Amino acid sequence: MIKNQNSDRCYLLLGEDQWTKSQFVCEIKNKILSLGNEMMNYFELKDKEITLSKIADSIETLPFFADQKLIYIKDSGFLKAGKKEDTDKFETLIKTLPEHVVLIIDEKETDKRSKLYKTIHSLYTVIVFDYPGEDKVFEMLRKQAAVLQLNIDSHVLTYFLRNMPEDIAYIMGEFNKLCDYAGTHKVTQSVIDAVCIFSLEKRIFELVKKVAQRNTKEAFQIYHTLIESKESPIGILVLIARQYRVMLQVKYLLKNKIPSKEIASKLKLPFFALKDLAEQVRLYSFKDLQDILIKCLETDKDIKSGKMDGIKRVEVLIMECLHTN
Hints:
alpha/beta
């Protein structure tokens, strides 16, 4: 977080973690808006409905029986390159924010070289909301489990978390569903498997892991479950190829004696995932991994040219990977 003078008058929210962003916005709402006049003193604009004239009008309008009003602007695009005229006008507006306005700007994409970003950075508060990491999310879930009196062991909670995407909103949705289903009963891995929807990326990770272990039955069980869940064969193929590219990078970096923590940071991998991958890549030579990536390209070509049905062609690819080396 970067705080400067008048930092409580304007906030620029960056990063991809929408759940913690929304929590922050709720906190500011509770702080600024008085009970009973929330609707009169809260103004929200998103995406295409955003215009400079609407923003200017909302800034100039005095709050209704209150000291301040809150304006929330989401995905304006003003901080991206290519909107100089709008950006310059918006910058003028926020440089002269009246005392009665608190402004929240929530952006997906930001050019930190832009004049507007530098102005906000120098005058107000910039907060980056990224995924906080496994340890912090685990602790948050552990506390929530205690509040709800959910009977779940630490290793089972870890299993749940490691099968979720790095998206707190998604994690909390699946966790609440698990709590509702389990009630007072003990949560086991089999309960999690039955109730929760794992991220596609995690399921592909498991599929490739089973292939590395030459576990044909479980590899195809995962694949057929994905197909039954209406996942696209092309989407599955893309993630399989990406996983093997990461494995090739891991193998190269390990060969060059790069420390594990540095590899995890460089490839943006959780440390537990890197440990798993390190075990897998030992089962392959560099040529094995390169051959699999070539087979992925051939699979993509066969599907897109109509030479073979997508579902069947990815099955063939999995079988080819199982018999590599």
